[in-house]
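Reply to dn_fold:

You asked what the input looked like. This is it:
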Amino acid sequence: MKEKTLQKEEMFLSPYAFKSVNTVGRLRYEEPCPMRTDFQRDKDRIIHCKAFRRLKNKTQVFFSPEGDHYRTRLTHTLNVSQIARGIARALSLNEDLTEAIALGHDLGHTPFGHSGERILDKLSPNGFKHNLQSGRVVDFLENDGAGLNLTREVVDGIINHKINSNPKTLEGKAVSLADRIAYINHDIDDAIVGGFIKVEDLPKTTLELLGKTSRDRINVMLLSIFKESESKNKVEMEKHIADATTELRNFMFERVYNDKTFREEEARADKMITALYEYYKKSPKSLPEFYLKRLDNEDVNVVICDYISGMSDIYAVKTFTQIFIPKKWKN
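and this is what came back:
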């Protein structure tokens, strides 16, 4: 099976695609799998790891949403994976590499979405970026500290998935664009369901150019990437579509992400995460055993960020409650 996959890659992938046989390998050598390519193995490792499962209870936009249909960090990840694979398929790139990067790109994300990221970035003297934390998760934290031992191409794509980064492969660039396409369009859907905006509020020029529904807009964006990038060493949208996408993103920051309601919720999350951070800074021996052991070789601020960023929304609230909220007295 593996040989068939490698043959197909050689026959059908673009000359600009990154082929599985060209991987520089892993941090630690492992015997090759007889059935799967290295990138297929990476994909399987990510989807079965604990950090991936915790994404189901991490905020995308709405904090700890009670409605069944709001996106979470897990559904966002799956959305990114599908969109990225669509880009890879259209441009004859390596779908396995693309999917592995997409599935792992947010493993290091904090509870309470980008609010949690901003809070930890402010608290830690080392700073905090979720994309770099995702790299720490797969290299050092998962699998009881052994890491997932992923190929360097997958880790590079994970660390460099932010839109202003520069991943080494076109597959990494596809994930970076897919991430932006996914969160802009699906956050619009959630904001409409949440009553923050109406479709009519979206900039008229973007509605006319991109479409009124997320499905239409995503199709237009993907077609634009194909038109601009087919048979070329790049993954980009046409300029007028990229500009309209940026206009939509700016609209979301103005009308949704910076809305008073979200700022108030972020202030509450700030108090909670700050209290947890300061508690563990003063009492590092209260950290769970896994993190306590890491203090022998790691800065305490890094270890605290590792622990808090790995929490789900639910676990963060539970931990805060256990530490700071008085318990009912029982006779």
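The mean pLDDT is 95.
Hope that clears it up.
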